[in-house]
């Protein structure tokens, strides 16, 4: 594979029916989780900043399907989808949204700081591009210890404008790190359209200038995303060095629950909704005769899972006041 930018026309090898159902259920799990978060936020059940992943489900699901349980994942502040696709239970994620002790970060991280070391999910990051240097460090450690692991780092198109991206890309290529850089290009860095902050909007082409394999993929097609990510991960494991994927996607909701979303018109949003990744997979499966009554069953299972997650979060305990300094300050040391 040459080190150049190129647009993928995947998928070529269609997965089996069971695998398609798995992809569909994973995307629907994220969608229903996020929709419930909207309801809970509006009811003041969950608070703080909440960045929804609705519309981008194909990216999280497709990429995570290409990774092994031993691979590492570094996320962003828009991370609910990444965490769920990685296998963190909905109950643990929802409890974290509530700030309860049963949350995956003990209730201390909230929406932007989900973390699960047991699944090698090394958290979201409230700082734009903040996860990139961390991912490079993980990949460097693996290379130095000869660990056959891929570190996958998600980030948005806004992070591409930050120095951390360029420093990380340069060192990753220079040191031949086993790093998969996944740019979720949803066309808006918060409220700024990409053409207003990037003189050259072909991000894959720019990434390729660092000497790494880079190509663009339809981020609204979960099968295309998975196949591209598998090719990249396999190449990285073979010692080919870092790879960059520009996954062209779109968020259907505003940047965050606080965002009035006045920087884009409704017509644009509706046009992208016509490419809804869930609907596209459902339509493709129906055309291929791969989906019958199973859709209702998937919907029921997912809805029941989210209902149980909310119920568990409601009943979970909050951290006692006397424990609030735990993990914040160290115990006093007597000096003789």
Strand percent estimate: 5-15%
Tell the overall outline.
Answer: globular
Query: Helix segment count?
Result: 12
Within the largest sheet, what's the order of strands?
Answer: 1-2-3-7-6
Indicate the multimeric state.
single chain
Distance between the termini: 64 Å
Order of helices and strands: HHEHHHEHEEEHHEHEHHH
Taking the sheet with the most strands, its summary is: 5 strands, parallel
DSSP E strands, number: 7
**Which structural class best describes the helix and strand composition?**
alpha/beta
Which range best describes the helical content: under 10%, 10-25%, 25-40%, 40-55%, 55-70% or over 70%? Answer: 40-55%
Description:
This protein is an alpha/beta fold. It is 44% helix and 10% strand. The protein has helices at residues 17-42, 57-65, 80-86, 90-98, 131-144, 163-174, 194-197, 203-208, 222-240, 266-273, 277-287, 294-315; strands at 72-74, 151-156, 179-185, 188-189, 192-193, 213-218, 243-248. Helix 4 (90-98) crosses helix 12. The longest helix is centred in the N-terminal third of the chain and has 26 residues, at 17-42. The protein starts with 16 loop residues before the first helix and ends in a 21-residue tail after the last helix.
